[in-house]
Design a protein that fits this description.
This protein has two domains: about 10-55; about 60-85. The termini are far apart. It is about 75% helix and about 0% strand. The mean pLDDT is about 85. It is an all-alpha fold.
C-alpha cells in the first residue's frame, strides 16, 4: 500500500488489521463475482429456467402465446418450403 493523502503517517495495528480485513472482503466479493460470471453451467440453467417460465404455465401446460408463436413459425416455415419447391 502507498501513502494516502490526508492520513497520518502512523497507524495503529488495529487500523492496519481493519484495512486488511476490508481489502480481504473486497477481494472475496470480486472473486465470487468472477466465479459467477465464469460458471457457464449455472448461467445455462438460469436461462433454461427463464425460458421455461416464459413458455410453460406453473401447472406445466404450454402458454397460449407460446403455442400461437410456434404455429406462426411453423406456418412461415411451410410457406417458405412450398415457395422454394415451386421455383
Amino acid at each position: 500500500m502507498g501513502h494516502r493523502e490526508g492520513m497520518s503517517a502512523t497507524r495503529s495495528p488495529e487500523q492496519i488489521e481493519a484495512e486488511i480485513a476490508a481489502q480481504r472482503e473486497q477481494l472475496a466479493a470480486t472473486v465470487s463475482e468472477l466465479q459467477e460470471k465464469l460458471d457457464v453451467k449455472a448461467q445455462a440453467r438460469q436461462r433454461v429456467g427463464g425460458l421455461r417460465e416464459r413458455l410453460v404455465t406453473p401447472d406445466g401446460s404450454p402458454r397460449p402465446e407460446a403455442v400461437a408463436a410456434g404455429a406462426v413459425l411453423l406456418g412461415l416455415t411451410v410457406l417458405l418450403v412450398v415457395r422454394r419447391a415451386r421455383r
